[in-house]
Amino acid sequence: MPMTYPPAAPSVTGDITSIHTLLQSPTLIARRLRTLAEQRFISDALLTGRFEATGGAIQYEQADSMYTDRTPEIVRPGMEYPLAGVGIGPTQIAEVQKWGQDVPVTDESIKRLKRNPVDRAFIKLVNQMVKQVDSVSLAVIASTVTATAAAAATWTTATAKQIFSDVALAKANILALNEGFDPDTVVVSDFAWTYAMATFADAGYLPREDGNSPVLTGNFPVIDGMRWLSSPNLPTANTALVLDSTQLGGMADENLGGPGYAGAAAGIETKSIRDDDRDKYKLRARRVTVPIVIEPGAARKITGLGA
After folding, report:
1. Contact predicate 291/251, CB 8 Å
2. Is the dihedral of CA 171, 173, 174, 178 positive or negative?
3. 244 class by beta-carbon count within 10 Å (0-12 exposed, 13-18 middle, 19+ buried)
4. Which of 2, 37, 107, 115 could serve as a FRET partner for 222 with CA atoms 20 to 30 Å apart?
5. Domain spans of the chain?
């Protein structure tokens, strides 16, 4: 995914003392998880708005029309301007949920395997958090977005022209709403992403002349002004999403704080808990968040992909 964060991960040697120092430093743990998390969450790439929930919930207004209720009029010299009304969409309230878990790391595992058990614990914490939060966020998007069109043919056998047309037509239909949306992202399953990449490559859509070729790097190029992202957490099989990530919605995180917690990288708070009675650490990650869709019209589904 094309999401990065400038600070690099902390450098930890294989020295056991250094590893214990890492596990006793909330700041270093937060930096390590931040580097992993911000490269994995697709929900934050699609719902780019950043909102702060307070008191366990967030109240927001789902979009109404982006226009006033009357057209502009010619204003003669010395005359008053006509007063227009601004529509307000329905008010919604979304309750945040606290997602989290602990992973144990024993002194024995550190002594025998050095940094390996710590890295595996970090990676699995992030992977599980991504799976949970992304699944919830994508389900919210899928249930809120109602505009749908069927693919011209299943992408397992479709031509490059058919796949391109499916996505381009979805984009055109969103633009045709004339609500100021500009779709910039396509989200598909890992399998649909693979079929589309192979079909575009076979048709000569993708450049092959240098080492940055998508066929070599595995990075999908921007096509028709849209980036392509893949996720195994799409709630509906054989379905793609075309959307304007700048207007669709956002993630409302609540920073609970608390002793020993550090950071809120990609919304994740972390804590290392030393259990001297059992000679181990508990590495904790939590995210208190709720995804909200503000502009349902900024997205459209393509069904019948067959992948």
Report:
1. yes
2. positive
3. buried
4. 37
5. 16-64+87-303
Give 246: exposed, middle or buried? Use CB within 10 Å, 0-12, 13-18, 19+: middle
* Sign, Cα dihedral of 268, 273, 278, 280: positive
- The encoded tokens of residue 29 equal 């743990």
Please give the structure tokens belonging to residue 67.
């226009």
- Work out the number of other CB atoms within 10 angstroms of the CB of residue 66: 15
Smallest Cα–Cα separation from 301: which of 159, 143, 178?
Answer: 143
The pLDDT tens digits of the residues spanning 236-256 come to: 899 999 999 999 999 999 988
Dump pLDDT digits (tens) for 187-211.
999 999 999 999 998 888 877 666 6
Return the number of other C-beta atoms located less than 10 Å from residue 254's C-beta.
Answer: 22
N residues, the chain: 307
16-64+87-303 fold: phage-related protein like fold (3.90.1690)
Q: What is the DSSP string of 187-227?
A: EE-HHHHHHHHHHHHHTT-S--SSTT-HHHH-PPPPBTTBE
Tell me the whole-structure pTM to 2 decimals. 0.80
